[in-house]
Write a structure and sequence with these properties.
This protein is an alpha+beta fold. Helices cover 16% and strands 44% of the residues. It has a ten-stranded antiparallel sheet. 23% of the residues are buried.
């Protein structure tokens, strides 16, 4: 088999999503994140949330002005993207929890919006979300922004009352 044939056989189909990456020190850069064209959890393409939540993903493949890079997820404070992520629409269709919150990050920045999440009814408080081992990145939305925030970058959260009244206990 020729080298070119081997390289073509190893290509994984992906879609690019424009994001702004902000590292733990507060430095930001524009990038495209590569997401698989099919999800392992649902019908359709992989979502940014799925990629960030995957236990197999430690380094995120991105294209920046410097070229294709692998970015260490543990060194990201957050990823910012345009509204309209498919996972937000899915949360809107189901009984998901929403809580207005102000997130104070370690590098001094503050983000304001709605935390959006699914949790079992017996553990749906924001504190339950923050302490859940499987939640590496939290989804925060505002009218014109979406952020996936690394919970390790959060110093404190000021939570307002839940926006939708759903029984939490």
């Amino acid at each position: 088999m020729r080298t070119q044939d081997v390289q073509e056989a190893l290509v994984v189909p992906v879609e690019a999503l424009a994001v702004r990456l902000v590292t733990l020190d507060g430095k930001g850069s524009e990038a495209f994140v590569f997401l698989h064209t099919s999800s392992g959890r649902r019908f359709g393409p992989e979502t940014l949330g799925e990629r960030l939540s995957s236990g197999d993903t430690r380094f995120l493949p991105c294209e920046t002005v410097a070229g294709v890079e692998l970015v260490n997820l543990e060194q990201l404070a957050y990823l910012e993207c345009a509204p309209g992520l498919p996972e937000v629409a899915e949360l809107d269709e189901m009984s998901a929890f929403r809580s207005a919150a102000l997130l104070h990050l370690a590098h001094g920045e503050t983000l304001s919006g709605e935390l959006r999440y699914r949790r079992p009814p017996f553990s749906c408080r924001v504190s339950d979300l923050l302490n859940a081992a499987e939640e590496r990145f939290l989804l925060l939305t505002a009218r014109d922004h979406c952020w996936y925030v690394n919970r390790r970058a959060i110093v404190r959260i000021h939570e307002d009352a839940p926006l939708e009244v759903l029984s939490c206990r």
